[in-house]
């Protein structure tokens, strides 16, 4: 091995003469390599040996994550029964139940708003802006329910739909009129929904479910605050205009807002 290295590194080596053997006149020379170059050669061989050890599957010192060892516990937890979810992980029964309750809240809201849409769409009420607003609100609440259902399935829970309360069908009020009364009812309902969402978030935090908590905060809570602010402004405006001609102007404003958003 040394002879091969000597031949390859001959241009970098110096030669040192040795004494002639007895009775002979031939001088032998042995190569002398510079110390830095020889040290580099040794270091290269050591690195090659280390790489070979790694490739052969030998464990490195200080290894923090050993997947094939740590995965054994997760493999043992995988369900084998066909009725059990394979995706479920660290998802408490309490969170699953609370999520189903929120689905029911959203569907009830949608039902109430659909009843309000039907009322304002009557031929003897004919406030098309309010009718459109409540129809869109009903669709939005149903989308919220579906989003919660999709998340329930994503986490390995089971969606359990519950009964929906029959909403009112008449919304006229002798003092406030129908528009203000309906919008105040909407504001109260949105605030109640916000309370329900905060309760769901509290359950997620209690169960240390960071993923559910993040989902509620990012997908629902901010939007809920914006909805409360918007409807609060509608209530304030309707209180200003009273029950008369101003309601028609407010209704036209809602109609134009809907058309502008669609455009």
UniProtKB/TrEMBL annotation:
GO terms for molecular function: ferric iron binding; ferrous iron binding; ferroxidase activity. Its EC number is 1.16.3.1. Residues 89-242 form the Ferritin-like diiron domain. It comes from the Eukaryota. The keyword Iron-sulfur does not apply. One of its GO terms (cellular component) is chloroplast. It is an enzyme of class 1 (oxidoreductase). PROSITE patterns: FERRITIN_1, FERRITIN_2, FERRITIN_LIKE. Keywords: Chloroplast, Iron, Iron storage, Metal-binding, Oxidoreductase, Plastid, Transit peptide. Fe cation binds at residues 106, 141, 144, 190, 224. It catalyses: 4 Fe(2+) + O2 + 4 H(+) = 4 Fe(3+) + 2 H2O. GO terms for biological process: intracellular iron ion homeostasis; iron ion transport; response to oxidative stress. Its main location: plastid. It is found in: Plastid, Chloroplast. InterPro entries: Ferritin, Ferritin-like_diiron, Ferritin_CS, Ferritin_DPS_dom. Oligomer of 24 subunits. There are two types of subunits: L (light) chain and H (heavy) chain. The major chain can be light or heavy, depending on the species and tissue type. The functional molecule forms a roughly spherical shell with a diameter of 12 nm and contains a central cavity into which the insoluble mineral iron core is deposited. Stores iron in a soluble, non-toxic, readily available form. Important for iron homeostasis. Has ferroxidase activity. Iron is taken up in the ferrous form and deposited as ferric hydroxides after oxidation. Stores iron in a soluble, non-toxic, readily available form. Important for iron homeostasis. Iron is taken up in the ferrous form and deposited as ferric hydroxides after oxidation. This is Ferritin. It comes from Zingiber officinale (Ginger). The lineage of its organism: Eukaryota, Viridiplantae, Streptophyta, Embryophyta, Tracheophyta.
């Amino acid at each position: 091995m040394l002879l091969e290295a000597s031949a390859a590194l001959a241009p970098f080596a110096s030669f040192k003469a040795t004494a002639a053997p007895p009775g002979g006149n031939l001088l032998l020379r042995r190569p002398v390599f510079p110390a830095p170059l020889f040290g580099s050669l040794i270091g290269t061989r050591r690195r090659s040996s280390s790489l070979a050890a790694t490739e052969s599957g030998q464990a490195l010192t200080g290894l923090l994550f050993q997947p094939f060892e740590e995965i054994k516990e997760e493999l043992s937890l995988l369900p084998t029964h066909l009725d059990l979810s394979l995706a479920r992980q660290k998802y408490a029964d309490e969170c699953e139940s609370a999520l189903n309750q929120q689905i029911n809240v959203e569907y009830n809201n949608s039902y109430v708003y659909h009843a309000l849409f039907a009322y304002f769409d009557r031929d003897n009420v004919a406030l098309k802006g309010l009718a459109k607003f409540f129809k869109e609100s009903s669709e939005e609440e149903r989308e919220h329910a579906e989003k919660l259902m999709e998340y329930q399935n994503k986490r390995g829970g089971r969606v359990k739909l519950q009964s929906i309360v029959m909403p009112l069908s008449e919304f006229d009020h002798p003092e406030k009129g129908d528009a203000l009364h309906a919008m105040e009812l909407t504001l109260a309902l949105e605030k109640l929904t916000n309370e329900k969402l905060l309760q769901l978030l509290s359950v997620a935090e209690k169960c240390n479910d960071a993923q559910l908590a993040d989902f509620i905060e990012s997908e629902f809570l901010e939007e809920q605050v914006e909805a409360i602010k918007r409807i609060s402004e509608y209530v304030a405006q309707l209180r200003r205009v009273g029950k008369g001609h101003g309601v028609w102007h407010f209704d036209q404003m809602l109609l134009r807002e809907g058309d502008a958003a669609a455009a």
